[in-house]
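USER: Please consider what follows.
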Amino acid sequence: MNWVVSKQLMLWLMALLLMLPFVNGTILKWFKSLINHSNLSKKNSGNNHLLPVIDFCLPNDFGRTGQCLLKNVCKKLHGESYSACAYDIGKCCVFTATCNDVITNNNTYFVNPTFPGVLNNKSECELRINILNYVRHLRLDFVNFNLAQPNRTTGVCVMDKFVITGGSSRHLLICGNNTGQHMYYDVHNTKNVTIKISLGSANYSRMWEIKITQVKSLLWASEDCVQQFQGINGTIQTMNYGINGRHLADQSYFICIKQEKNMCSIVYQPCNKISFKIETPLLSADTELEEGSGESDNLAYTDSYANCKDRVSINCKTDGFLTVCC
């Protein structure tokens, strides 16, 4: 940004400062953003990117979130400008990416090339995410996600595969229908990560829309938590859970639940009679429990239970969250 533009911004700032008794915290935050950018532009004349006016905004025409930026800056960053924000000073800028793109902006939506239409051809889709400074985690929100189902017998993703690599977290491979799910991925000390979607047949209709958010730190949960939940109630589902969904093979990760204020325990129960079932456990001969019911006979954890390849282990910790190991 050259001095002429910076001078115009300072004139805006001076005019708005005269209205300080009448403005709220949102505008004050915008003032701070302009001041920071003005100082930054003097130190680095090659940096023409304005800081966000407001961290998040909601376009009027659809449910995605964006960043409130000046319109010309949004265009320079290859975003799409939508409804006005920050008292009509900025525009809600939404970033999208598709196959073979490189993400350099936060809060970007990764979509299939034909979105909102389906994709039904055999192909490979790869996306690279450049990690911003001081970012430790990626949060992936699967707004829409529908790939081919895994093998009916083994649960292995054979036809279609979604995998993210390059970070320090364990590689997670999923397929099927995961709309509404989310996951965190550790990218500490990582410069870039790769998402690869492999489509193995032309006989299935796929669609994906994944919001990718770069997170500097997790305020309350462990870095090992692939999924995080908070609130006084909620629902935990395995990946690809739903109508005609099949349990995915090789899924081993932590789900963390925040311990809310004044709460001292959590009750877990199946949502219905058929909502909780994993590999048949090796119960003792004298137990009367129905296998797969999700109930417990309160027996101590024994070697016989450890022999169960599929299991849910619920452990209580003392640093502000509870962990469910799947």
Notes: Residues 25-43 form the longest helix (19 residues).
